[in-house]
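hiii so my PI (J.) wants the whole complex modelled not just the main chain, which honestly fair. so below is everything: two entries, each one labled with what it is. i double checked the lines twice but i was tired so who knows lol
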Amino acid sequence: MRFRKAGFAVKILMLASQCVLLLLLAGCWNNRDLTELNIVTGIGIDKSENGKVLFTAQVVEPAAIQSTSSGRGKGGEAQPSPIFVESYEGDTVFEAIRGMLALLDKKLFFSTAQILVIGEALAQDGIYEVLDFFQRDHELSYDMDVIVTRNCTAREILETEFDMEPIAAMFIKESVENTSARAKVKHTILIDLAKDMSDRCKQTVLGQIEKIGEKEIKTEGAAVFRDGKMVGRLDQFETRGYMFATGQVESTIVNIPADGSIIAAEITRTNGKVKAEIENGNQAVLKVQVKVDANVGEYKGKGVINSQEVMERLQEALGEEIKKEILMAVEKAQKEFASDIFGFGTYLHKFHPEYWNKVKDDWNDIFSKLPVDIKVDAKLRRTGIIKGTIRSQ
Amino acid sequence: MGDRIMLGRRIRRRSKTERQDTYGSSTCNDVIDPIPETIEEVKTKLNGIFSECDDFIHREIVCGEDIRIKLLVAYFDGFVDKKVLNQDVVRPILEYFSGLKLQDDDINVYERLKCCVVSNSDIKEAENMHQAVEGIVSGEALLFIEGECRALVIGVKAPQGRQVEEPDTEVSVRGAREGFVENLLTNTTLIRKRIKNPNLKMEMMHLGKQTRTDICICYIKGIANDEIVREVRERLKKIKTDAILDSGYIEQFITDDRMSLFPTVGNSEKCDKLAGKLLEGRVAIFCDGTPYVITVPYLFIESIQVSEDYFDHAFFATFMRILRILGLLVSNMLPGLYVALVSFHQTVIPFKLMITLAASRQGIPFSPFSEALLMIVAFEFLREAGVRMPRSIGQALSIVGAIVLGEASVAAGIASNLMVIIVATTAICSFVVPPLIRATMLLRFVFLAAANFMGFLGIAIVLVAVFIHLCSLRSFGIPYMAPFSPLTVPDLKDSLVVVPIWAMITRPKILMQNNGRRETKAKRQEGLRQ
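here's the output for the full assembly
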């Protein structure tokens, strides 16, 4: 096939002119090199002394990370720190972020941020307003972990350096996420928090973090909010109770007292649901139903698990133990915080809308006075590879 | 049916744009020049034609009792096997005529020579001077006879060229080691050896005004589509050129889309591969002087087909097919994807990878685009030099290349570690699909530039454009992307998935031959029962 000469020339010309147009566009739209970015790993927001927002960013120095990971153990000269932390104050979060460029060389790149640490003081003042930016901005990753500090500021947490992991935020994130094996800290990612916040029938709970040493942090317990303001805390067992009730436990160790000895049960599977039923027309009864599968992981004492009866007894005891924890959490939420953190309101809203419409305006107060019925159905499945303890045989 | 129509349209357009000329017009002069009757005149004439050709030899033989018989043998030195010539031609003549008296005129020397004397089996007749000269230049010995206006063309061509060897370009672990050579007849023999069937047709012709290169169209009658064979003949006849030095010349003349980067005419050096293609109903074009044999129609899918696919277990073959497609994509797009990732879409990079990327980019003075360009061009230099330079220098070059491209450029902070890995991966992958190396080489830059302008969007645009182009291509009327577009379900058996050879019952449907089944069903079942 031969092109007709004129047509071909025109085609080439058009193509060339289009390419020239492309050149004009080049580099304008969002083309930025990796080296022109400050890679943010952790974000912290605090209340500043002037009552404004104090925005803190933990920025990573990639080259330093590489040198620490490859040159570790060599000793000798001090390695440059792989992270640095900067704070800037502003009336709004966005203003503080842009203002922070005064302290930095390159623009901040947020989509790598692993954690969002909320300072205690700010949490008590309310988080709804501050968190707007984090939902609005397109660059932020929705799966960063959100946690609240205890007895320290967000900046202090972000400044912590760890020996094991050069990127501090990564360490904290992993520490929060290992709750899947212990269920003692609430793990919330940003998108879930946003959903919680938009749900008017339910109150927010966030995990908490504590600084317990120069290079140590502890992630345990949870902070309870009511209408966006932090109203109190749950300790580790109450947190677990809360998580059992809401079905967030993946695995944990629950101790069962049994005839003077202690049996550690490893929870392998749980299913927790909160419900509410309307009795006598206008009286709601709150219900928590939890199903648990567990294995015997440890038997501290003398005894043999050799019969169905023993197993049943243990199962019952395990159920009681879990029920106790749930009850602790429920009572605290009702009596101390008057905050429906379990989402009974969501259930009522869905299944009993007439009732909900009557109570929704002062639900939290009504909630704190309602009776709660907790049912735990625990099953022990396996006893490990031995029956009794070593001594008993 | 659509293909058939398309084919017709193509032919029509071609005949409109290109004026038909009479093929096979003479090389030297158009006037038919008779062979003179006397040897003296013949001699003068030949000397005139072959003046300054010092390798032209002619020998006059005078024999017979009464020295009435005058003959002239003419040939090119070296071109003709002298031993055979002496044994089969000169000696029998001398022996036969030495005692013969030409008393009667009814003894026809010419017929005698042709039937009784010359013991060579390959004898033709030259009716005029033009045919005679043609015989001489194509390496045959000419025997002129006093008093005859005809001459005998005796095929005593000396075997030329190298032995049949394993081809360098298409290496296979398993399968025949035989590759084609430069000699056309050796090549056709190699195919005849594999397909012992009178339906294997070999149509010879000459191309090239100056070179008069021997060309052979080869196909299996009854399997190959007659229309395609006719189209091949037509296109070859339309070639008007001085010289055909390689089958590559023919390839460029007969290809459908002359501007396309993608090959629509295939070539191969391997006999078993070519035999397979012929049996699928393709047409091969042999060209004297090159071991590369052309096959048409050539579809995209053929670039990822390797003869070993059919020798091996179908699972491995399928895996290799997918691997090749993957390699093709990687070698095209990897640098582009990298550039798009690090300059536009940092958000999709996993956190830890991002740290690694950022660390490796630290301190590099170039943008990812220029860095990639630099390294790819450097690699192309290296590759080209590696192909062109004498073998003995290769070692030195590869060391310098490895050190400069790999180590030093990273150490000097010109390129990042990762870019070296990417260019290396790209380079390796580009050799996974050899027929598309050239297309890939250029497309890589297009993808790279598009990625630098528009990120993933740019890559997507180029990708779509390439696919549109691929789908619009045709090779001798057959859609290039078959069996995918148009979807030809029976042909999918030998595409990304390779079914075992016993399950490949039908020949490629898209090639539209009359005889679709590879063997009759009854025979097949019989075979299975045994």
